[in-house]
Amino acid sequence: MSARMHLSDAHGAQEPDDGKRLTVAAEMLGLLADRTRLALLRRLAEGEADVTTLTEVCGAARPSVSQHLARLRLAGLVTTRKEGRRVVYGLGHGHLRRLVEEALNVADHRIGHLPPHD
User: Fold this and answer.
1) What proportion of the chain, given as a percentage, has pLDDT over 90?
2) CA-to-CA distance for 64 and 43, rounded, in angstroms?
3) Are 92 and 77 in contact (CB under 8 A)?
4) pLDDT (0 to 100) of residue 29
5) What angle do CA 1, 103, 58 make, to 5 degrees?
6) What whole-number distance in Å separates Cα of residue 58 and Cα of residue 11?
């Protein structure tokens, strides 16, 4: 789920339809507009983690965390891999990590009544 499609230089870059870009971006931001999912993504921005670790970090019940992770996985925002019997989750790409960090930076400014800046 990317706002831009990246192709090799030999094929040139293809710009997606602006309406489609806005729709996909709105869907992705909608997934981030949940406190539990945002907490999960913030932790995954630090590195991979299993469900037990993620449950402890976000303070939600394990079944709820599993459902949120499934939704994020289906949207392509998180990846999974097996490590023995454990499933380890990671972020789908760096853009998502930066987006979560920036959203939290904006929150810090609002909470601390700090002036905006570039």
Assistant:
1) 77
2) 16
3) yes
4) 94
5) 85
6) 43
